[in-house]
Amino acid sequence: MWVKRQERMLLEHADTARKHTQQPHYYDCYCLNGIQFLKSTPHHQQQYGRLFGCATTPRILPISASYNLGHLQGFAVSFQAWMNEKFSPELLESKSEIVECVIEQLEHMEENLKRTKGGDLKASIHRMEVERIRYVLSSYLRSRIRKIEKYFPHVLEKEKTRTEGEPSILSPEEFAFAKEYMANTEAHLKNVALKHMPPNLQKVDLLKIVPEPNLDAFVFLRVKEKQENILVEPETDEQSEYVIDLDKDSQHLIRYKTIAPLVASGAVKLI
Amino acid sequence: MEASEVEFLAEQEPVTIIPNFSLDRIYLIGGDLGPFNPGLPVQVPLWLAINLKQRQKCRLIPPEWMDVEKLEQIREQERNEATFTPMPSPYYMEFTKLLLNYAADNIPKADEIRTLVKDTWDTRIAKLRLSADSFVRQQEAHARLDNLTLMEINTTGPFLTQALDHMYKLRTNLQPGGSAQSQDF
Question: Cα separations (Å) of A11 from A8, A21, A51?
């Protein structure tokens, strides 16, 4: 499924590329950061304009696209998804939109890099950037897979009980992976041990034997939007619960459970 | 998160260089860079700056705070106050290390700067250990850690959080039903 989609994406690129070499085009400015970039409608055009050294470099250079802003804001989104996933004890909602957008841009850039000669300074800078982004992307996907492998029955259970309209925490590919992993584990347990057991002991409940994600884990976080009245549960019986405010840009050490919804909404980021 | 990954994040931060080559504006996925003209300062991310420096294609301009006088002030302030003082850059340690390793010839008084930053770092880490200790002793459920940088958090973070998790497990397992049950033989 994954490969097919990649193929389709590539074909689409080829099409737009063909179109663009035929007609000249002009841009006033374009938005460079990851996600906005995909959402704005004529994104293929924009994307093409951003490529280097090809015949279709835009005639009018972007006005507002300074590296700093574009860079920090744009990658803040994907970098943050990466860090949140790294630090949170449970599997977070899949950011497949960002992932796809990043993959799309990488593929595109790599296609173009193939056409250039090796020793060019420009090409080598591009190549370095591609490597860096690829690292973040694979590290992100890997940390998700690690969690899926660790908590697969719970992940699948959550997916089953999910109501219509609620966004899935798994991408379609991850869902297929989790299901297969579950089936394989069950088959393995059966073949190795269970079928040699007495009949009344042949059942095993994976939900019970695989540990759940530890939501009580402590995490470090940084506040992006001010939050008031967060209830902190006491550690011991002698202490009583109390309420704290999370000021913007302040940093805290607290139980993940307390602030899990804020991570999902993006009001805080894990560090 | 490992130290190398924190350094990776620091490398995304912009720094000013003076190139000695010319190159048109380039359109990276993360934003635009350039144009590069010999002798004209331009901002690039640190990873590129270091790479260019290694190829001897540019001179690095140290950030404003990387200055002996300013750093001395920061060090004194850090020593005098009980809490963490704000740092000039969220990646001050990584910046110092990378710049001094790869571009020491572009930074005046590099050795003094190295010592000053190291002193500040040591003071801060000592404070961090103390506060982590009191956090654990008092069994707090929440701590505020303003002005701590990512690198500082990550030197003690993983160990501290794991220790807290273990203590929590031990405590919660003790409470229900007393402790004698499994000890009886």
Answer: 5, 16, 18
Residues A100 and A10 in one domain: yes
Q: Which residue of B has its CA nearest to A120?
A: B23
A170 and A37 assigned to the same domain: no
Assess whether A228 and A134 both reside in one domain: no
- Is the model's pTM score more than 0.90? no
Residue B180 counted as domain residue: no
d(CA A270, CA A92): 12
* Predicted confidence pLDDT, tens digits, chain A (271 residues): 444 454 454 445 444 444 443 333 322 223 333 333 333 333 333 333 333 323 232 322 232 333 333 344 456 677 888 888 888 888 888 888 888 888 888 888 888 888 887 678 888 888 898 899 899 889 999 999 999 999 999 888 888 888 777 778 888 889 999 999 999 999 999 899 888 888 888 888 888 888 888 888 888 898 988 888 888 877 666 667 788 888 888 888 888 888 888 888 888 888 8
CATH number of residue B26's parent domain:
1.20.58.1020
Domain check: are A64 and A17 in the same one? yes
The verdict on A200 and A252 lying in the same domain is: no
> Is B124 part of any domain?
yes
Q: Across the interface, do A239 and B139 touch by the CB < 8 Å criterion?
A: yes
**What's the total number of domains in chain A?**
3
Are the beta carbons of B121 and B94 closer than 8 angstroms?
no
Evaluate whether A85 touches A219 at the Cβ level (below 8 Å). Answer: no
Does residue B179 form part of some domain? no
By Cβ distance, the residue of A65, A236, A252 closest to B143 is A252
Preferred mutation among A72, A131, A220, A229 to probe B, highest tally of B CBs within 10 A: A220
